[in-house]
């Protein structure tokens, strides 16, 4: 899907970390909207999408002048206490537009010059590898979490047809780890996967986070129910995966190859 792009000058960039992200002092979104438009994305039910009046996934705002504004806000925030940043809470910071726009890169340049206490980067895009030089400069003050909801490409295409392929994400994890950048594979939301998934991840990362709609959509699964996501499972005859207990199956598989303290469940896997 090619979205409509809008270039906007934001008044603020750093938002207070709240709810699921209350462990962070701030969240940071270099873009508004998201061209990946995943079927299960609950951001489509949040004000940023609801008041837009256009379908989630069809529009992206590019935040102009972001680095300059961010540098000022970071200074002010640092004067008040530790600054821990989650990037991003309601978009993917590596939109396809980031190839050209370089908003996220400009923010990372600002952070490399003046590091926050911690930065968590959440993405599903291989484009994050472009910024390995800047991420490396943050040392152990950064973690890059790459979403890999499943190891089945047919499942990925069913639920998230406009997002990057699974193999590209697995390669991304390898490249980041080889560059010495702290990484995490994030199975969120949990989608149907094979019994080889855990072993595949074990060759790439030493830390995994597992989350599902029932723990992680901020409403005990109600938002996801309202979006009718169950129907997507029914189309595949895989309803047993749309269940609050399904994560236990994958957790068991992970625990066969990862130490228990490297398998994080829901919010614990996103903490600073
Ligand atoms: S990549 Fe993330 S923010 Fe974008 S549509 Fe998918 S779940 Fe939503």
From TrEMBL:
Keywords: Iron, Iron-sulfur, Metal-binding. SMART domains: Elp3. Pfam families: Radical_SAM. It comes from the Bacteria. InterPro entries: Elp3/MiaA/NifB-like_rSAM, MJ0683-like, rSAM, rSAM_sf. The keyword Iron-sulfur applies. The keyword Iron-sulfur applies. One of its GO terms (molecular function) is metal ion binding. Residues 20-251 form the Radical SAM core domain. This is Radical SAM protein. It comes from Cohnella faecalis.
